[in-house]
């Protein structure tokens, strides 16, 4: 493939290839000296039209650990602020000989549009409410590392499903690998197409969490609410906030995930976010490994070459 735009169109084999490739990448991150010459002579540009802490810095570090040359651009620091179009921005970067453009954009479908404009590889680092494929992959990597495989696993995704590209990438990826995915949240934050995506829909948190192996807690995306938040933040927190009292409903050794950034005390209590079940900090480490694997594979690497 030239691009990584989403998990919806990847096969189970392709998802497995990325996860398998990330295993030796994680060993590189664990070393004292992390740099390998694998992508020497390659260039990666991160082009972010929305804010980011985790995704942008982990792509940057992933590229640097593999010895690629990197440049970071944000909308405010580039000629986008002077009105340059996405197509012209992409063509300009492409003319500089870039190999991979990693882009985050507020519009769903923007990554696919850019991929159609330039021969360089495009990685979708989050496009509107559409997909965030590397987040889905790092969530899956974290789950597989702890649980072994996906078949028969019960995963609950909690919260603002409507605005969540993370939820969509998780649903496409996890269902493809054989997991049962439940989504739970208020009716006002549930997308109409959710039934067709293969997830089971719940509106009561306790029912959704009964016996699940993994809980992926989402952030309420206040910046994307069109008509104000309904229910209110206080009601939301009371009805859908994951707290210590919910842990007893889960399967033994259940995992708590959160893609970050967290609204602690709203969708997740501090005790749960930093408790024994939480793998939130491991998700961040795994994000670097997954992004190394994605950059490596898109620039022509083969998974088995890494273990030699
Ligand atoms: N999970 C995630 O995409 O975080 P950032 O917005 O900080 O990149």
TrEMBL record:
Its domain of life? Answer: Bacteria
Q: Transferase as a keyword?
A: yes
- Catalytic activity, EC: 2.1.3.2
> Known Gene3D superfamilies for this protein?
Aspartate/ornithine carbamoyltransferase
Matching SUPFAM superfamilies:
Aspartate/ornithine carbamoyltransferase (SSF53671)
Instruction: Provide the residue positions that the database annotates as binding L-aspartate.
Output: 82, 165, 219
Q: Which residues form the Aspartate/ornithine carbamoyltransferase Asp/Orn-binding domain?
A: 152-298
The cross-references to Pfam families, in alphabetical order and at most eight, read: OTCace (PF00185), OTCace_N (PF02729)
Which reaction is the catalytic activity of this chain?
carbamoyl phosphate + L-aspartate = N-carbamoyl-L-aspartate + phosphate + H(+)
Query: Annotated Gene Ontology MF terms?
Result: amino acid binding; aspartate carbamoyltransferase activity
A single GO CC term, please? cytosol
Pathway connected to this protein = Pyrimidine metabolism; UMP biosynthesis via de novo pathway; (S)-dihydroorotate from bicarbonate: step 2/3
Q: What processes in GO biological process is this protein linked to?
A: 'de novo' pyrimidine nucleobase biosynthetic process; 'de novo' UMP biosynthetic process; amino acid metabolic process
Keyword Translocase belongs to the record = no
- Which keywords has UniProt assigned to this entry? Pyrimidine biosynthesis, Transferase
Which positions are annotated as binding carbamoyl phosphate?
A: 54-55, 104, 132, 135, 260-261
Span of domain Aspartate/ornithine carbamoyltransferase carbamoyl-P binding = 2-145
Q: Which family does it belong to?
A: Belongs to the aspartate/ornithine carbamoyltransferase superfamily. ATCase family.
Subunit structure, as described in the record: Heterododecamer (2C3:3R2) of six catalytic PyrB chains organized as two trimers (C3), and six regulatory PyrI chains organized as three dimers (R2).
The protein's role, per its UniProt record? Catalyzes the condensation of carbamoyl phosphate and aspartate to form carbamoyl aspartate and inorganic phosphate, the committed step in the de novo pyrimidine nucleotide biosynthesis pathway.
Q: What is this protein called?
A: Aspartate carbamoyltransferase
Read off the lineage from the record.
Bacteria, Bacillati, Bacillota, Clostridia, Eubacteriales
Its gene name is pyrB
């Amino acid at each position: 493939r030239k691009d990584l735009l989403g998990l919806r169109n990847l096969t189970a084999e392709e998802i497995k290839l990325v996860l398998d490739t990330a295993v030796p990448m994680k060993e590189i991150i664990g070393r004292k000296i992390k740099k390998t010459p694998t992508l020497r002579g390659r260039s990666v540009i991160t082009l972010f039209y929305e804010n980011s802490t985790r995704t942008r810095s982990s792509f940057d570090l992933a590229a640097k650990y593999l010895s690629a040359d990197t440049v970071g651009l944000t909308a405010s620091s580039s000629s986008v602020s002077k009105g340059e179009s996405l197509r012209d921005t992409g063509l300009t970067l492409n003319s500089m000989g870039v190999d991979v453009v990693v882009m985050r954009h507020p519009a769903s479908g923007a990554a696919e549009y850019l991929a159609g404009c330039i021969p360089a590889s495009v990685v979708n680092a989050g496009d509107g409410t559409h997909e965030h494929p590397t987040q889905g992959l790092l969530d899956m990597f974290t789950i597989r590392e702890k649980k072994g495989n996906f078949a028969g696993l019960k995963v609950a995704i909690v919260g603002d499903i409507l605005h969540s590209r993370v939820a969509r990438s998780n649903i496409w990826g996890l269902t493809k690998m054989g997991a049962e995915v439940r989504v739970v949240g208020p009716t006002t934050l549930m997308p109409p197409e959710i039934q067709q995506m293969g997830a089971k829909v719940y509106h009561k948190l306790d029912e959704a969490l009964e016996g699940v192996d993994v809980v992926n807690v989402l952030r309420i995306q206040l910046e994307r609410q069109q008509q104000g938040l309904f229910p209110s933040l206080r009601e939301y927190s009371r009805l859908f906030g994951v707290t210590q009292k919910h842990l007893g409903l889960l399967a033994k050794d259940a995992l708590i995930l959160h893609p970050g950034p967290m609204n602690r005390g709203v969708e997740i209590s501090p005790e749960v976010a930093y408790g024994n079940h939480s793998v939130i900090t491991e998700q961040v480490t795994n994000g670097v490994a997954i992004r190394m694997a994605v950059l490596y594979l898109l620039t022509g690497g083969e998974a088995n070459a890494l273990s030699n």
